[in-house]
Specification:
Distance between the termini: 46 Å
CATH superfamily: q2cbj1_9rhob like domain
Shape: globular
Number of domains: 1
Number of helices: 3
Number of strands: 12
Length: 194
């Protein structure tokens, strides 16, 4: 693949989505306790320290989060292309990207999410658990990106995005923020400069 322009998002299909979608959907629905502007519903935010193994209490969610972290390096490599970033000179490894927080979202009919970004986080993701026909697209910098169950989108955390009011019930997804952890910080802690 030859890339000549900057890209802000990359999408993949989760290879194990069929086995886990119903359990993930039930988990999100039963834990959506917070209403956000535009009447979407959100779970509590789950935070994770760098490098810790995921242990949410739901095996399907833990497996998905591990896969999201492992796949992130491929998405970032594509998004970093044509950015003139020093990152392009480094040799990375898949565990150099860590999810530091994640949450579920449920969109009843007529609900959405206001335009926002996830800055200061460098990379964010949206994984679609349920996307019935008529679900609102994911709108990233004015571009409507269709959503479907089992699809993940990685995107730059500083880009503006929104979900316009949904025409149907049942749109459900998992979102989160990812940080880059250079290899040397995974191998040993940095010593303070004195």
């Amino acid at each position: 693949m030859e890339l000549h322009e900057r890209i802000n998002h990359v999408g993949y299909d989760y290879p194990f989505s069929g086995k886990s979608q119903l359990d993930l959907y039930k988990y999100i629905i039963s834990n959506c306790e917070h209403e956000v502007p535009m009447k979407g519903r959100r779970t509590q935010i789950i935070r994770n320290d760098y490098g810790n193994e995921w242990d949410t209490g739901l095996k399907e969610l833990d497996n998905l989060l591990r896969w999201v972290e492992n796949q992130a390096v491929f998405a970032v490599n594509l998004m970093a292309h044509c950015t003139e970033s020093m990152y392009n000179l480094e040799k990375t490894r898949p565990d150099s990207f860590k999810i530091v927080e994640t949450w579920g979202m449920y969109y009843p009919k007529g609900s959405g999410t206001l335009k926002h970004s996830h800055f200061p986080f460098p990379i964010s993701f949206a994984y679609y658990i349920n996307a019935p026909k008529g679900s609102s697209p994911f709108t990233l910098e004015g571009e409507d990106i269709p959503v479907r169950a089992g699809k993940i989108l990685y995107f730059k955390g500083d880009v503006m995005h929104e979900v316009k009011p949904s025409g149907v019930d049942g749109r459900c997804m998992l979102a989160g923020n990812i940080v880059y952890v250079p290899k040397h910080t995974l191998d040993k802690p940095l010593e303070p400069v004195v």
